[in-house]
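User: For a reading group we're discussing how well predicted structures match intuition. Take Transcriptional regulator, AsnC family. Before you show the prediction, I'll give you the sequence so everyone sees exactly what went in.
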Amino acid sequence: MGLSSPAVHERVGKLEAAGVVTGYRAIVDPSALGLNVTALVSVIESDAVDDTGIEEALHAMPEVEDCWRVAGSEGYVLKVRVSDIPALEATLSALNRIRGVARTRTTVVLSTKWEGRHGREA
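Assistant: Thanks. Here is the predicted 3D structure of Transcriptional regulator, AsnC family, as C-alpha cells, for the group to look at:
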C-alpha cells in the first residue's frame, strides 16, 4: 500500500475507534484441541418461552461455538464442536434439558470445505 508503519497504525486505530474493526482472533484447528466432531443443531422452542433464559444457557455451554437466532420453525441454529459422538450425545441431552427447549434437530458435519468467508484466513 506504500504506507509507513505509523500511518498504518493510525488508520487501524481509526477503524477500531469507529467500530469497523471490532476485534482480533487466532484461527485454531479444532482437531488439534481434540474437537473432532462438528454438528449444526437446530433448537425448536416451546410455545411459552423466555429467550433470555435459553440464550444464557446456550452461552454457558462451551460446546456451543456459534449461535444464530433464525426465522422459521427453529428458533436458533448452533454450531457445536465436541470430541466424539458420545460427547455430542451428552451435549444434545443437556440442550434438551434447557427450560424452553421443546426439541432439537441435529446435522453432523462429515467434512469442512471452508469456514469463514470462502475460507479466507483472517
